[in-house]
Amino acid sequence: MKKLDKIIIGVIAAVVIVAGGIYFLGNLGSNKSASSDKASADKPKVIKVAYATTNFPITYQNDKKQGDGYDVAIMREIDKQLPQYKFEYVGTSDDDVLIGVKSGKYQVGVKNIFYTDDRAKTYLFPKNYFGVSDSGFVVRTKDKDKYGGLAKLAQNKGKLVPIAPQNGQYAVIADYNKKNSPKIDLGSADTFVVSDALKWVSEGRYDAFFAIRPMFEANVEKKDGANADLKDKLTYVTLGGIKTYPLFNKDQKEFAAAYDKAIKKIIDSGKASELSEKYFGQDNFKLLNHPFK
To answer: How confident is the model at residue 63 (pLDDT cuts 50, 70, 90)?
Structure first.
């Protein structure tokens, strides 16, 4: 073999060895990176849990400026079940909970969230719910027997304050209308101020406002509530319970699967009902046994 040929073969061999080493080291590094992304009890993955700060007693900040409320408390119980994760709670606005979870700023958000098909296009909903919201109508006290129920409102041709289509309460009315006649006139609205809706019912502009019990208690029944002056004019009537969920970023499938296993154990143990009694003064899970009517 000529000297030149030997040199060329030697150079090629060296290149192959170097390239192979780079490939090996590169894969070693990528495998290390992949394994480091895997949540484990030794190196728990940090999960930022966003919660709305002004939704007492569902999500709020207590006197110690710590996250509190039913949704936060149940997430703390879930945290105990998942040593491979470390939860950090971030208090923020209602809007930022949604925006932040969507962008990935937060891995999960809580604020009395109902499932809707529209939201499921943007966020990841787990298989299992973690709470139940006492949902019902706010009506004029004098008209409670006339409009205090889905069938009553429909039969008496009452006017319902419009509901945003992305709200879970909209789905309840839509489902009722599919199965019953006469139907409830279901108008849609993007947003409005709760205190305005309560005034509209009081004034007779509308006959019912689909709300949740904590909202009515905070706005009407509390002495310093925004609509405390309407306490003798308005009444809240429970219609049923709507399941509530934590809202996950679309990329958090592994975390959501772990959540599903944990929350099932917590609900089965009775702890979720215990927390409902603590924060709402009643076991809202029992409301699931009573269909809306």
So the answer is: very high
